[in-house]
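COURSE: Structural Biology Practicum
ASSIGNMENT: Worksheet 4, Part C
STUDENT ID: 0417
INSTRUCTIONS: Below are two proteins. For each, the amino acid sequence is given first, followed by its structure token string. Answer the questions at the end about the second protein only.

PROTEIN I
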Amino acid sequence: MATIKVKRQGTAQLNFVYAYDPLPEDRLFVVVVGLGGRGRELGTLPICHYDALLALAVQCAAFMDEPIELVPITAKEYIELNRDGLTRHWAKLSDEARAGAIAAWEGRLQ
């Protein structure tokens, strides 16, 4: 894990960006502002944007009171964390769209 110290704009105080190292099986990462029980999830993005978002997090941390965490997760972890919302979304898809999404998920879609 990388711990990046960032000088807060207009003060002598520091803020931090905590960037956990992705594992080979990680496909997404969660952006969290704050730590512990006070953290707020801002969103989840594909792992291919990790470097760009890390650079953006460092820039944003200079203007924020709370630290930023970048937490890599697997696709399975994402599904487990968001099962209810995904179930509602999948129910709205046509049969054809659902079949295409499943094929893409399973690696059968070329």
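PROTEIN II
(use this one for the questions)
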Amino acid sequence: MKSLDNMIWEAKHGNGQEKLTENQIDLLVSLLGHKCRTHTKDKLHRRLSLPLSLFKTYGIYSRLDIDEKSVEYTPGQDYGSEITTLRQCILD
């Protein structure tokens, strides 16, 4: 598994995955869009479909681990508010 932070860094430096796969996007929307409206889930899907090199980097991305079959978030203190923060960073 790689963190989203590492994936973005590798994409920006030309030696990593250019985009998330459709399966990875679906897993992330499922995790980050839980209890969100359809409009927000659609925005997340569109944003996650962009090339990783266009993403801004945030420290919280280092706690989001992604591989082809799963997505895991390791919370610091408050899982719910950190998922909200993570979603806001991606939509930024």
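ANSWER KEY EXCERPT:
Q1: The longest helix spans residues 79-91.
Q2: The two ends are 24 Å apart (CA to CA).
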